[in-house]
Amino acid sequence: MLNVENFRSLQNEVTAWRRYLHENPELDYRLHNTAAFVAEKLASFGINHIETGIAETGIVALIQGEGGEGPTIGLRADMDALAILEASNKPWSSKIPGKMHGCGHDGHTAMLLGAAKYLASTRRFKGSVALIFQPAEEGALGGQRMVQEGIMERFGISQVFGMHNAPGMDVGKFAICDGPILAALDQFSLIVKGKGGHAAKPHETVDPVVIAAQIILGLQTLVSRNTSPIESLVISVTMLKAADAFNVIPDQVEMAGTVRTLLPGLRDFAERQILTSAQGIARAFGGDVELNYQRQDPVTFNHTEETSLAVKAARALVGPASVDDKMKPRMGSEDFAYMLEARPGAFIFTGNGATAAVHNPAYDFNDEALPYGIGYWVSLVETVLAR
């Protein structure tokens, strides 16, 4: 029976891989060094079926089990970094100013590589495992692109699974829930149009700054007064650009933000009502607006059967008390959602300990979590593809 001690022997080697990746971050689809590193490691494990160049720098590798015929399941890790100046002060900090692994994708990649090495040497399962190393998770929709390029059909993947580290959760703990686990993400931008002029003569202008301020407040009522308090909707205005001089009222103001929800129908509501609300406010002041609304990640939706399999695999590794199977959904988003739309599967969180939050300049993946992530992947494979 597997437990985390089976994977301690891999920790030093996988830690070295993780720290190398952390020192050498790459962004979006431009993961040429990262992809070459991953492909070289996979080949060194004796894996013969490795396909590169999927969605530019993505990789899918197949490991056949020795237990006979069976299905193929996909295990996905993301590889890209963030455009952030690192402030972790670790010896293995980023060597590239303005780029860092601020979300733990270096750890995700290293854990799946560690699992690949173990699975390639043991092969105690039937069917096959497809190792999916994905580029461009951070806003560039690499998951969608890999699906569009046909990885599910090409590799015969019938189920797909993902994992993410969770700062604030103890190392060795896992958390998951059935149904929506992460929110859909949409982006919007508004151009608020007015009539500019001198800041000393506001009565001769139609001030788009004042209009924008009213719109920001008005949009909050879409959450607090136009949707049920039981439903999850978050509208955040995060960008605002007005005049470049302190004594000028500009002709227009540019503003932008995000919409997050766990219910697909609320995306339609938000798109419709953001325009209606902003337009009504602007026109009441003598101005107008233009809206650009873009849908990004769908809801990350865990399927019931696959969630049960994930829970079973995690509990087999760390015991029932260390697996929360009823975690509250989070309002962050994941483009793994596209893979879960293409195939049934489940997304799980693994503890990263008391570290800085993801997307924080002080964040670093906790290497003590590596054996647990490796062990989860192996336990999942041997659970789903039991001989």
How would you concisely characterize the structure shown here?
The chain is an alpha/beta fold and 387 residues long.
What is the name of the CATH class of the largest domain?
A: Alpha Beta
The CA-CA distance between the termini, in Å, is 14 Å
Q: Total number of β-strand segments?
A: 16
Biggest sheet: strands, sense, closure? 8 strands, mixed
Uncertain residue ranges: none
Number of domains: 2
| Helix-strand category | alpha/beta
Mean pLDDT: 97
3D structure, described in words:
The strands form four sheets. The protein has an eight-stranded mixed beta sheet, with helices on both faces. It has a four-stranded antiparallel beta sheet with strand order 10-12-8-13, with helices on one face. Helix content is 33%, strand content 25%. β1 and β2 form a beta hairpin. The protein is of the alpha/beta class and 387 residues long. It is built from ten helices and 16 strands. The chain has two domains: 264 residues, Aminopeptidase (3-Layer(aba) Sandwich), CATH 3.40.630.10; 112 residues, Alpha-Beta Plaits (2-Layer Sandwich), CATH 3.30.70.360. α6 packs antiparallel against α7 and α8 crosses α10. The longest helix has 21 residues. The relative contact order is 0.20. The mean pLDDT is 97. The radius of gyration is 23 Å and the shape is elongated.
